[in-house]
Amino acid sequence: MGFMDSQVLVALSLSLLGGLSTSIGALFVVINQAPNLKMLGLLQGFAAGLMLSISFFDLAHNAINSIGFLKGNIWFFAGVFFFAIVTNFIPEPELSPISDGKSKKNNGDEGGKDILKKHRRQVLFSGIITAIGISLHNFPEGMAVFLGSMKGLRVGLNLAFAIALHNIPEGIAVALPVYFATQSKWKAFKLASLSGLAEPLGVIIVAYLFPSSLSPEILDGLLGSVGGVMAFLTLHEMLPLAFDYAGQKQAVKAVFFGMAFMSVSLYFLEVSLPADMSL
Fold it and tell me: Membrane-crossing residues (predicted)?
């Protein structure tokens, strides 16, 4: 067990590095003065791109690869459907349109503030869901770091580095909407850091539950449906916000930039994984 323990420790510290980089992303948000709406929109777009890339190229892709096209799709759309129902029960905050119209005429900034009030809950919600989505996504990454570092320190280090890199924008994606909605830097930082800590948690759970009781097929399916949830959420919550704040053209560019960024980091993640152990 001694050997196993030292390995768990190595994997834990590596995955902590990965997880902490989510906090680094959050720090960027916290250090900056209150971001302007345009910037919020672009960053929401960028975050939406990250999420879509994870959903389609990572989670759904892996589910389809491991349990087949049909089953993978069924799980994915089950996630979509499930979440579509859930969002129906989340009340949309409403504001009287009259004050909105007036203040827009008097003072552009006031109009912006009204929009913000209306969106605050939606923004906060998108931040919290991003945090949940990213935690679920970080979870198997933690497992990967653990399994990788069992293969050798170099592999584990590479993995941790690749994961750390792409956790920074994930941290931004969580912290930004939360900070914007709550105006509390501490809350933003806390939530982003928590979603990063799912990574070492993944390590601990794998280390002590291996071999796990959950059948791999169900696990892959569940990850696929997490992809569905994330995709639905991104298109339902984050994209409209990005459009509102940054304008459609700019927001769409930001989305694809985010997707490309995530794909590159997922690629590096894959390249640094040993051949016989894929995520």
Answer: 6-30, 42-60, 72-90, 123-139, 159-179, 191-210, 222-239, 251-269
